[in-house]
Amino acid sequence: MALKDLVDPAASGPLARSRGIWSALHLDPILLFLLLILVSGGLFVLYSGADRNIEVVKAQGIRLGVAFVVMLVFAQLDPAVFRRWAPWLYAAGLVALAAVLVMGVGAKGAQRWLALPGLPRFQPSEIMKLVVPMMAAWYLSRHFLPPRLSQVAVGLAIVLVPMVMIIQQPDLGTSLLVGMAGLFVVFFAGMSWKLIAAFVAMVSVSAPLMWFFVMREYQKQRVLTLLDPQSDPLGAGWNIIQSKTAIGSGGIDGKGWLQGTQSHLEFLPESHTDFIVAVLAEEFGFVGMMVLLLVYFLIILRCLYIAATAQDSFSRLLAGALTMTFFIYIFVNVGMVSGLLPVVGVPLPLISYGGTSGVTLMAAFGVLMSIHTHRRMISA
Amino acid sequence: MPWGEFKDTAAERRLFQRRTVVMLVFVILMLGGLLGRMYQLQVVEHDIYTTISDKNRVQVQSVPPPRGLVYDRNGELLAQNRPVFSVTLVPERVDGMDETLIRLGRILDVSEQDLERFQRRLKEPRRPFQEIPLRYDLTEQEIARLAVHRHELPGVEVEAELVRYYPHSELTAHVLGYVGRINREELQRIDPVNYAGTNYIGKSGIERFYEETLHGKVGYQHVETNARGRTLRVLERENPVPGEDLKLHLDLRLQQRAHELLDGRRGAVIAIEPKTGGILALASVPGFDTNKFVTGISVDDYRALSQSKDKPLFNRALRGQYPPGSVMKPMLAIAALDSGVATRDRTIWDPGYFQLKEGGRRYRDWKRGGHGWVDLREAIAESCDIYFYETAVEMGVDTMSGYLSSFGFGEDAALDVSGALSGLLPSREWKRAIHNEPWYPGDSVNLGIGQGYMLATPLQMATATALIANRGTWVEPRLLRDVIGDDSVEDVLPDETHQPLALKNPEDWEYVVESMAEVMHGTKGTARRAGSDAPYRMAGKTGTAQVFSLAEDEEYDAEEIRERLRDHALFVGFAPVEDPKIVVSVIVENGGSGSGTAAPVARALFDAWLLELSEGSDSGLVSQATGGAQ
User: Which A residues 116-175 touch B at CB under 8 Å?
Assistant: First the structure.
């Protein structure tokens, strides 16, 4: 399959003929195909990472099935619906986040869950990954683009408020992802390069302030550990040392499926959740990592194509931001496991076990498919 | 608004598409960065991490060798190994240490001492995930109960190891000794490589003397472990070389008999085969259960043993230093004859006392009225003190000391008996050095009947008697008969160092032997009652040793003091006279007279060895003996 076909299946090939069915289902066959490859390969790695516990794989399979249904549902909704609902969803999200801070439940010293009577327990911060870019896109797309300075400021405020609330839970990882999602909207909207430069400068100045006033002790520890894992070889450094060992010992072609000693001998912590990429790297080696990153890259490529061909600003901004959020997931997770970034709790998208992130991600892909399949034949 | 009311959708799209291209480049660069990082880790630094990974999972564990077994001369097992189960905790894996300990206390019998020792070791520095033992030697029921509750006790493990077991514990306690946990001091001198994995070491007796032979060589295995240090599989294994099995000269049946004969008394018996020097029996009564010491004796049990008035822990046969008394007379007779002081025809008038000079101190004979005219043979047979007083003074200390030293007094002459004491052989130099006084003729008088400063152990008395039985040929007492393994006995057994005692007239040996036969068979022999009606001829010498003082901490109990002030009863002897097959030395503490108490014990042992147990006439006593010990 040539790259050209991937980008536009309507151009030629067997997919062209079946486009009618896909349109009716509001699904994008290329994206769906790539996601299926990723998810099915991921289940194999998960089986190994969970130390051959088939129950874990089954549970993940069910969760992914639910996520696919969610994607299907989101794909049916017209993008206009998202735009119309964005302010209300955003307002509700802020209320929910406030509620979490007041009456949230959770574990390990963090309050992230909201248990409302009659509703399943849910994590409002997770939903904000979708809602914040929607709101930012809603606001910015109401004006001429590129936005003016004041509009950029409002856009940033829309992003910053939920971010700060999520940090309070505390959940640095999700807060960063929500923030990135919103910032990408502002970026795609055409925030001037000068402003971007100024913004980057501001962030670098505020980093030390963050260190002293915002970051919790354990978060600082993670950064320090990243700089020198050997300083705490049995504590926080253990994870980084062991995951780097897992990856490095995998070599070019890996130790083979289910043959990873680091993960199966319990040296690698969280080998089926956040650190699962180390299992893949150990068992399938550099070749396996190349394949994984290629699949991710193709998904991003397809999504960016969808964004670029979207018909209105709101759709474009939302599609672009969701795509880049997906990329940030990948980058932060792989960067953290390979010792480039501090350890923050970010799962490897659609492969790590558990969490609601899989559902959110698939919902985002549903939005993308909706954007792509609800195009009206006006501009062609 | 520069472009009027309407949005310029085409411009917005171009702007967005430019930004998308920027993002695409950004994504490619970042993914390229990740791929570069993977390349660095997996290709460039692959070797480093492979090494770390192997070190992570592969550990070298030492495999302790099984300890060699010990048999008696008939192949009866005296020391064996049995699996013992202990319960250990890995603190890192235990959730709630206090709670777990309380729960374990409900399942098992955990004493205060166990807990105390555990808490102490919990505070000591150790490797992460290293287990700490809580209690040793679990019963089957306890293991079963633990298995039932195992799921609610994370971090609690049951571990098996081979531990020494002595099936005839009390009978063999003082011969075999026992093994115990290696202590700090022993840790300094053992080979740390060969003892890696070994928890026990010989503390006394054969276990200590032949530690090196019994221990064997450590083995190794490369095992794959998980992060918690739990062994998952063995990758490679070099088997340990088991310790070699030892066969002793000891005859468990005779040992059993000796214990029975001394039962209810305090005393010691040594039986030696004079041709080989092999120790047939080495009994110190009362004994104790050595098995209690192996995994660590409780404080209460130890206190009971160490504070007992009967001193069961004390090895009387090797470490009991007694004044040998009249038992020394045959050796002194050899000295007198060979030095020319006494002749076979010389007779001495015994009025019942001896004086160094007119009007001086009177040294009394044991027989109030005296023996009248006695020659050397009668002096031995009737144990006449006066004869020996007089010859002792004539010989002088240097002559006596010299000959007695040739008999092995004043040294540990045993080959492979660990912990034997050397007694005390007084000499002119010794007295000058210790008491800063010259040797007086009165000291010679006392030495002439084995009293005064002289001290000897039952083993030494047996050794000296064996020299007479062998007519001057030295065979140093030994326990080891054979090594069942690669080494030969000669490799393991120390070399003999004693020269034969050559007399100017070798006939003197026969003379003294015959005199000792008179003790048993003569009409006036002191042990004639013990020697009567025997189908073989035996030789012997009775003795009594004075008990000087009472230990200070002993409570006043008139009857007991009277009992404990009584003389020790001694006897040495061998049989048959013509071709000695067994030499015996017997001491019964506070037993009164040698003839009445000690000689019958020896006679019973002679009978047992020569009539019942002699090789070839297997009378099925093995089963009796073992049956009695269990």
Answer: 144-146
